[in-house]
Amino acid sequence: MEPTCIFCRIVEGRVPSTRVYEDELCVVIRDIRPQAPVHLLVLPRTHVQSLWELDDEALAGRLLSVASRVARSEGLDKGWRLIANTRDHGGQEVAHLHLHVLGGRSLGRMLPG
Ligand code: AMP
Ligand code: ZN
């Protein structure tokens, strides 16, 4: 059956995206509404709803190391930020786990106070 999840469709190549990296576990695309000069999304190929549902240490490790790898290949040597919006209160809009890699400008301090 054809998946309705937008990121599953992107992983399968049914919806166009700009891919910057892929391996057997994950795909990295450019965010369609970038919040910084570099805004990438690291997606697992399998449908995992969010970090809350992630129960695979090998995949977790891969997602993290790929985030760092693409940050490096994008030249984010001055720094960058990794965000995983998780579930409703975390502001997650797309229910397919994704790590945001943001950089290319000063992002300021995230935590209030
Ligand atoms: P989140 O709020 O963490 O669920 O973020 C979802 C992100 O996915 C947002 O930054 C969107 O701009 C991005 N997004 C949604 N649809 C697409 C798409 N078709 N291609 C690339 N990025 C997308
Ligand atoms: Zn999905």
Core attributes:
113 residues, HIT family, subunit A, five-stranded antiparallel β-sheet, globular, binds adenosine monophosphate, binds zinc ion
Your description of this structure?
By secondary structure, the chain is of the alpha+beta class. It has a single domain, classed as HIT-like (HIT family, subunit A, 2-Layer Sandwich), CATH 3.30.428. The chain is built from 2 helices and 5 strands; from the N terminus they run αβββαββ. A 5-stranded antiparallel sheet has the order 1-2-3-5-4, with helices on one face. The longest helix is centred in the middle third of the chain and has 17 residues. The structure holds adenosine monophosphate and zinc ion.
User: Distance between termini?
Assistant: 48 Å
Tell me the strand order in the biggest sheet: 1-2-3-5-4
Strand proportion: 15-25%
Q: Give the helix/strand class.
A: alpha+beta
Return the CATH architecture. Answer: 2-Layer Sandwich
Mean of residue pLDDT values = 96
CA-atom Rg in angstroms: 14 Å
pLDDT below 50 for ≥5 consecutive residues: which ranges? none
Output the CATH topology.
Answer: HIT family, subunit A
Question: What is the tally of helical segments?
Answer: 2
What's the main sheet like? 5 strands, antiparallel
What molecules are bound to this protein?
adenosine monophosphate, zinc ion
How many domains make up the coordinates?
1
**Coarse morphology:** globular
**CATH class placement:** Alpha Beta
Give the total of beta strands.
5
CATH homologous superfamily assignment: HIT-like
Topology order in helix (H) and strand (E) letters = HEEEHEE
- Please estimate the helix content: 10-25%
